[in-house]
Amino acid sequence: DAGVIQSPRHEVTEMGQEVTLRCKPISGHDYLFWYRQTMMRGLELLIYFNNNVPIDDSGMPEDRFSAKMPNASFSTLKIQPSEPRDSAVYFCASNPTGTYGYTFGSGTRLTVV
Amino acid sequence: AQSVAQPEDQVNVAEGNPLTVKCTYSVSGNPYLFWYVQYPNRGLQFLLKYITGDNLVKGSYGFEAEFNKSQTSFHLKKPSALVSDSALYFCAVRDRYGGSQGNLIFGKGTKLSVKP
Fold this sequence. Notes:
The complex is a heterodimer of chains A (113) and B (116). With 113 residues, chain A is an all-beta fold. Chain A contains no helices and 11 strands. In chain A, strands 2, 4, 5, 6, 9, 10 and 11 form a 7-stranded mixed β-sheet that branches. In chain A, strands 1-3-8-7 form a 4-stranded antiparallel β-sheet, with no helix packed on it. With 116 residues, chain B is mostly beta strands. The N and C termini of chain B lie far apart (41 Å). The chains are: A mainly beta (113), B mainly beta (116). The interface between A and B is medium-sized, with 21 and 23 residues.
């Protein structure tokens, strides 16, 4: 199994630009999570899906952030417009129903200049 | 509300010595508890979990953790530290009676540094 796959690994963009982060969960995992990691705030849950349906998006910081899961094998996290304070590492994780530990992707390091 | 506290930002240990990384939690019911490790420029890797049963849980790479309900703690331990254990360690908790499967709450992390 290739694990949870995130792309790109690194993204540098200018303030005001749209940024799209991508995630492919492990096949058969019906839960998908988006986390953001910063030095100041640690790991924050942004949103999670179950069977492609968003369950809890209370962690999404602002309307500039949106996430979709059009099918069981793909999810996107979009920031439009991006701001320097969005600079962070964004992680995607997945797990199947009935288990309790997540499998994380390697993350996308976003830098907004 | 659920919460996790890792009181130490950094733990320094000499190679070969025992190590402990502390974690305390707060949940309304009985907890599910986890430890994850993050190596530089990598995602989080699962180390071990406590769901039920024996309070001493053994995990990957020789790590273990002890669930102490009275002290609401779940400290991570290893009898003999290796330089390769140097990484960022996260404790996480979920309420057993939570309304959904998701939503692990993570601590802020503890940086473990093992010197030769």
